[in-house]
Amino acid sequence: MKLKRLYSTFKYDLDLIEKELENAVCSNSTLLQNASLQLLKAGGKRIRPVFVLLSAQFGEYKIDTIKNVALALELIHMASLVHDDVIDEADTRRGRPTINYTWDDRMAMYTGDFIFARSLEYMTNISNPIAHKKLAKAIVEVCIGEMVQIQDKFRFDQTIRDYLRRIKRKTALLIAVSCELGAIAGKTDERIYRRLYKFGYYIGMSFQITDDILDFTATEKELGKPAGEDLRQGNITLPALYAMQIPELKAEIIKVNEDTNKEEMQKIIHLIKHSGAIEKSHLLSRRYLDKALHILQELPANRAKRPLQEIANYIGKRRH
Amino acid sequence: MKLKRLYSTFKYDLDLIEKELENAVCSNSTLLQNASLQLLKAGGKRIRPVFVLLSAQFGEYKIDTIKNVALALELIHMASLVHDDVIDEADTRRGRPTINYTWDDRMAMYTGDFIFARSLEYMTNISNPIAHKKLAKAIVEVCIGEMVQIQDKFRFDQTIRDYLRRIKRKTALLIAVSCELGAIAGKTDERIYRRLYKFGYYIGMSFQITDDILDFTATEKELGKPAGEDLRQGNITLPALYAMQIPELKAEIIKVNEDTNKEEMQKIIHLIKHSGAIEKSHLLSRRYLDKALHILQELPANRAKRPLQEIANYIGKRRH
Question: In this structure, what CATH number is given to the domain that contains residue A260?
Answer without folding.
Answer: 1.10.600.10
